[in-house]
Design goal:
1 helix; 2 domains; single chain; about 110 residues; alpha+beta; five-stranded antiparallel β-sheet
Length: about 110
């Protein structure tokens, strides 16, 4: 129990996630990892949940690299759309050429 990270409701619709540092009878004392002072005592009934897993790597990754992933994804989408637009234009030009060639062939056959 000591050292567990829990989420509790401090006030109505105000939730806090801090680490348990002490227990006194039916009350718990918590403190945020980056806080200098301890929180007010809470009751066991205020606890809503316990953190069972956290990863420092993913937080670091998201803060450091997610913006680059987002920018890369955006650039990729733009490039794909430009290539699709060029292909459609090429297809339209090819269709026009095919129609012209058909007309030329038909004119030759008729003559």
């Amino acid at each position: 129990m000591f050292g567990d990270i829990i989420t509790y409701e401090e006030d109505e619709n105000y939730f806090v996630t801090h680490r348990i540092i002490a227990k006194d009878d039916n009350k718990l004392i918590t403190k945020g990892d980056r806080n200098n002072e301890v929180d007010t005592e809470i009751l066991n009934s205020q606890i809503l949940g316990k953190v069972v897993y956290h990863s420092l790597f993913w937080g670091f990754f998201i803060r450091k690299y997610l913006k680059f992933v987002f920018i890369g994804f955006t650039v990729l989408v733009i490039i794909i759309n430009l290539l699709r637009k060029n292909k459609r234009e090429d297809d339209e030009c090819n269709e026009e050429r095919i129609e012209e060639r058909k007309e030329e062939v038909e004119d030759r056959i008729i003559k």
